[in-house]
Amino acid sequence: MGDHQLRVMRVLACESRMQILQLLQERQRALPVDEVAAAVGLHVNTTREHLDRLVASGFVERSTEHRTTRGRPRMLYRSIDSAAVAAIDSKARAHLVSLLLEGYGQPMESPVTAAEMAGVAWAAELGCPGSEASGDPERDYAAQVDALVRHLEELGFEPERLDDDEVLALHHCPFADISSDRRGVICGAHLGLVRGILERHQGPLKVEALAPRGEGTACTLRLRREEAVAEAGSELVDA
Description:
This protein is α+β, with helices and mostly antiparallel strands. Helix content is 50%, strand content 15%. It has two domains: 3-79, Winged helix-like DNA-binding domain superfamily/Winged helix DNA-binding domain (Arc Repressor Mutant, subunit A), CATH 1.10.10.10; 95-236, Muramoyl-pentapeptide Carboxypeptidase, domain 2 (2-Layer Sandwich), CATH 3.30.1380. The chain has a five-stranded mixed β-sheet with strand order 4-5-7-6-8. α3 packs across α4, α5 crosses α6 (111-124) and α6 (111-124) runs parallel beside α8 (183-200).
């Protein structure tokens, strides 16, 4: 891994910086530091330090406010979308590669099985403590879906909720340029990632299937309540 890629990984390894970057992407306009700080719940000075790191790494651009009244102009911050997407893809790619390499040479049934196991391990390293079941199935169901969507958004998959939250469309794949050649392995890792996230956030939801994208379409992730998949298990579906 080169020096630039290492710096990218370090910047994006911080959950607070990821929250700031996601905020700037969602707002789609330049924001002053105090507004960013209020939105993410951090002190202004801490927020400014995070923004400076994001600017230095090429994820955010800084400009001076144009004022028509007297007073000192504020510094404004705006996300650079193309850099952010490329960096998140790089982070996801590097993380998965490192996990696959850890299992290299160990006896496995198949490369897809190894990839699914790597995906489960990936979920365990997302920096989220997870949550135990509350005893209320509907509450746990909603919490699982929210956690899954949040993690997939942070990893750059651009999830969209469909069909009462039991079907998610994944509009972006960090591995799109290589998945045509190694689709089974890549999709297996993503299936394991989703399974691992749902296991860490306990509730009734399990993975039913992941259908890879066709040309110009999104991948489709199907979820089901536990009793509905107890016998069937989860699977990859050929496009």
